Amino acid sequence: MAIRIGIPRALAYYSFYPQWKTFFEELGAEIVLSPPTNKHIVNQGIRDTVTDACIPIKVYHGHVASLVDKVDYIFVPRLVSIDGEATFCPKFLGLPDMIRSSIKGIPPLLSPRLDIRDGRFAPVKAWIRVAKALGAGYQQALRAYRKSVKFRQYYDELLTSGMLPNEATALLDRLTVSLRTERKRLSEANTIASAKASSIPTLESQNHIRLAVVGYPYMIYDEFVNCGLLDTLKRLGASIFTPEMVSAKDRRAQAKKQPKYLFWYYSNQVVRSVYHFIQEEMVDGLIHLTAFACGPDAMVDRLLELDCKKNGRIPYLSLCLDEHTGRAGIITRLEAFTDMLVRKRGGKQ
């Protein structure tokens, strides 16, 4: 029977899940993904975590708790730095320790320390150690790592093309199923290219209100936490751009505009993507999703507000979310914001 490895559908899941899934499946493991966030998961996370934690951390605890008794291991990486420039939030760094101390009766955690500052080959060594803990040999682990990196590259390309994470993940899952032989692997690049082409906005969509929805991926793409914000905006006729739709190359080009780099990885990505949207005049307005009690968010929110004022007074809406946020209030604010943008453009939506 295959080893069952649980992956919580929260936090860095939205950035790295295809890589993690590919790595473990190449080792012969079965992936058990926690269900989409729901009220029960949130309530369980609130009970398990410390009281001053932000909503993403509470949600993560709930997802871990939902996997207890269902898996042999739970994957909770210690994400430190993947670019050598900034670190993840301090709670990311201490996440495995928080989980072990807060949730009783959990199975063993797989918690590699992923920090590129430990050396160029530190990440691959960390992944190989994980593979060996699962009984895999060096060559098998190396092959799994290389394939997982390739699938993460595919995933990033699909996000840059305009796909949302759930759409990109579904496509890669289909690709994994169809590419079972060495001969078929030659079609991988063509499959990704055709998917990217189909994601390019049409001329019709360019007549819609163009909105940048920025923030950390676990706030933007968790439909329960953000009260279905993306679906609401689509219903209101908006074309949506997110930080993940800006290529790494374009974000690096914007980095020189920062007076000082921020300490946190996701914060830098958000700020640089907004610089790109503003420079390319891609959006009519900007919505920033923040988590109540998040220290980095408080700083980033003010920086974005000032940048929008400085660059043509771009309409700016900040939404602070926690477990008490109500869907009706969010919908009301979004409707008012989009109505204002329609009047500003002098058109009809």
Layout of SSEs?
Elements: E1 4-7, H1 13-26, E2 30-33, H2 39-48, H3 55-67, E3 73-75, E4 78-81, H4 90-93, H5 95-102, E5 109-110, E6 113-115, H6 122-133, H7 138-160, H8 165-178, H9 188-199, E7 209-214, H10 217-220, H11 229-235, E8 238-241, H12 248-255, H13 265-279, E9 285-291, H14 295-310, E10 316-321, H15 327-345
Parallel strand pairs: 1-2, 1-3, 3-5, 4-6, 7-8, 7-9, 9-10
Helix pairs in contact: 1-7, 1-8, 2-3, 6-7, 7-8, 7-9, 12-13, 13-14
How would you describe this protein?
- With 349 residues, the protein is α/β, with parallel strands linked by helices.
- It folds into 2 domains: 4-147, Rossmann fold; 204-345, Rossmann fold (3-Layer(aba) Sandwich), CATH 3.40.50.
- 51% of the residues lie in helices and 12% in strands.
- It is built from 15 helices and 10 strands.
- The strands form 3 sheets. The protein has a 4-stranded parallel β-sheet, with helices on one face.
- Helix 2 (39-48) crosses helix 3 (55-67), helix 7 crosses helix 8 and helix 13 (265-279) runs parallel beside helix 14.
- The protein is globular and about 65 Å long.
- The N and C termini lie far apart (55 Å).
Instruction: Please trace the helix and strand order, writing H or E for each element.
Output: EHEHHEEHHEEHHHHEHHEHHEHEH
Derived structural class: alpha/beta
Do you know the CATH topology of the largest domain? Rossmann fold
Radius of gyration: 20 Å
The tally of structural domains comes to: 2
Shape: globular
Low-confidence runs: none
Distance between the termini: 55 Å
The overall pLDDT, averaged over residues, is 89
Q: How are strands sequenced across the largest beta sheet?
A: 2-1-3-5
CATH architecture grouping of the largest domain: 3-Layer(aba) Sandwich
Which class of the largest domain in CATH terms?
Alpha Beta
What does the main sheet amount to? Answer: 4 strands, parallel
| Strand count | 10
| Percent range for β-strand residues | 5-15%
Question: How much helix is in the residues?
Answer: 40-55%
